[in-house]
Specification:
about 600 residues, alpha+beta, five-stranded antiparallel sheet, 20 helices
Length: about 600
Amino acid sequence: MEFVCNRINFKTVMVTLTVAFFIGRINLFGGVFPAAIGFITVMLAVSTIYIYTLPVIALSIMLSYVQMETTEPYGDIIALGSCAVVFLFFHKQKLTINQRTLIAASITVICRCGYSLARFDLLSSGSMDWIALGQEIIALAIYIRVLNASAAALLAPGESTSASGGRAGLYAREKIGMSLALLAVSMTGAIGEKTVVFGIWFFFIAVTAYCRDFTFAITVSAICDVFWRCMTGTSSSVFTSIYLALIIARFLVAAFEVKYRKYVLALILLGCVVLTTKTFDYSIAVSMSIFAAVPGDILARVWHTIERVISPDEVKKEDEKLLNLKRHLRTKRELFRSLSRMCYEGGGNQKVMACQFEALARVTDRFIDESRGENYLEKNCRDKDIKVAIAGYAMGHVSGDSALNFSFDGNKQGLLLSDGMGKGDAAAPVSQMVVSTLSKLLKAGFDIDLALKTVNEMLMAENDGEMFASLDMTVINKSTRRAHIFKMGASSTFVKHNGKVAIIKKPAPPVGVASALELEYLDFRLDRGDVLVMVSDGVSDCDRNDRECGWLIERLTEIGSSDPGVIAELIINKAVEKYGIKERDDLTVLVAVV
């Protein structure tokens, strides 16, 4: 029943003695110490050398007794010593965890009853609490299994035999995680000071929700609640507040940007406690302030270290795979960049290839960055709903304008509107090539600047700058509602917010005109209910006397509908009306509504 690793150093001794002291302080049900008996039972299964923890545990129990002044712990101390003697004497016997639990429980009952008989008051009224004794036996069985799983993970991760005779690696990850959580809650609860204990527990729950998930955080809260009831015999309304806060946070935190989620989580936890309990607990406020102040990457690294303890073999294998993958990706990245430099120096048509190789290098860089997995809450991010509609009017059989709405990069939405040189059949192939190629490049993982440069170089290489097209592109991050607008020879964009319409315009040459493409964008945030309208120059030029498109602003202000299809059709109809009998250009309107 020994672990293979029996090497002891000063650090191990100090850590073990500290744990033994706090476990000896865990008194439940009005003055019983099942965790202490469970600790010596498990540790002697690990190695007989841990017998040195016995005096520290006994001293810790006596100190707890002095503070309680309500019960005599001698029955538990006698049971503790008896278990130590029995398991030390029979340490070579291959006992299963169930057999050790049965022996420890039997010794506890015999010692507790024997001590009461020695005092001649076993049958006297109120001298022997049989209910507390039954509760102690149940708690003892639980703590033996919890400590057994924790010892297997902490003392011999992945290589040694546990007290139950199995491999530590056979423990389910969730089982070890739950055992370590219960052990941590119990040891901090043994401090006894309510303000300090609740502050530590709150910090632990917040870190669990931030780095792991809200389900596990609720489970940890339940463990804290049950332990507090067992230790004090009373419940606390604080735990009800925690459950409520975690449920609310589960739905609200994902709505904020990653860098703000930690602060929002801290505010929700603290706010729910204050609002539901009608009191302000300074220890909880301090713990939430510390949680908010600690950088998220530090919390992530600490949690990753804990994950290594819970499943060391699995993490080690994954780390090795990840390291090999990163090494392979870095080699490919340098190859792509060397090819990009080679093609760029060649000039001419090879510039398109240079852009493509540079884009592949950047995509590889993104894979390397994303493989670090430092952001644990990103998976909880939920996209906002953005409705898009496109309406058009063609002079001939085919419109020279091309528009496209598509999603890429997980949580981004691209809106493209291009007007080719000329009208109808002459302009359509160019505009279609621009929006189709650009959307495919962005979906493939190209950065926006390289995707635009690639399309520009393709048009330049086609006929030395004689083929060009306007491009109006809006990229919306559906998680944050941030919108980036790129304009290359495109008409103004109109944004309706709270009934008022703003004009967004930026003069720039179309794509395919100049090799040195200037890539600047306008950045703004879309709020719920905002309407974004993109139009081709056929719409913006329908009234030569109204260069500022006052008619469109007025029309957009009058429209009360939030249906993008209705808005687009009404604007197209108004533009056709403005042209009258004049020769019309191709008309296209793209409307997006948050």
